[in-house]
Specification:
Radius of gyration: 18 Å
Shape: globular
CATH topology: Nuclear Transport Factor 2, Chain: A
Helix content: 10-25%
CATH architecture: Roll
Number of strands: 6
Largest sheet: 6 strands, mixed
Number of helices: 3
Number of domains: 1
Structural class: alpha+beta
Strand content: 35-45%
Strand order of the largest sheet: 2-1-6-5-4-3
């Protein structure tokens, strides 16, 4: 059968969205749809991080430092949170997502430990993008 390449082309075109795009019925990207794709698809994630990404931390001397991560040093982030994470014995934390019209944040807060990380997203030209990470863990 020589229909293989034709079927593959049809399936590829039927997928619709290019890498880095999410389409909905009203053509507006919701944060929920975005974060699902961001968590599960490492290629998609690379297209939705503002590189070089600023990672803000507090040093031992209580001074703020800013490191920048380039795309070639990026490690895939997974925002998969299960309720049991808040009660596990090691590195327990809670996760809270706050969404407004053009910005959102995912906040991780440790339970009886020093975890304190905020991932800040902005809607840029209709697409959600990770803009900065604030890691004030100790």
């Amino acid at each position: 059968m020589r229909h293989g390449p034709i079927i593959f082309t049809i399936l590829l075109l039927a997928c619709g969205a290019k890498t880095g795009e999410i389409r909905t019925e009203n053509d507006e990207e919701t944060f929920d749809m975005f974060i699902d794709a961001f968590t599960t698809d490492s290629s998609f994630q690379l297209t939705r991080v503002k590189f070089p990404l600023e990672i803000v931390t507090w040093g031992i001397d209580e001074r703020q430092t800013i490191d920048k991560v380039a795309s070639d040093n990026w490690r895939h982030l997974r925002f998969e949170y299960k309720t049991g994470y808040a009660t596990r014995k090691i590195d327990a934390y809670t996760q809270e997502i706050t969404i407004s019209t053009d910005s959102a944040s995912i906040s991780l807060r440790g339970v009886d430990n020093g975890i304190r990380i905020d991932y800040v997203f902005k809607k840029v030209e209709g697409q959600w993008t990770l803009m900065i990470v604030r890691d004030y863990s100790n």
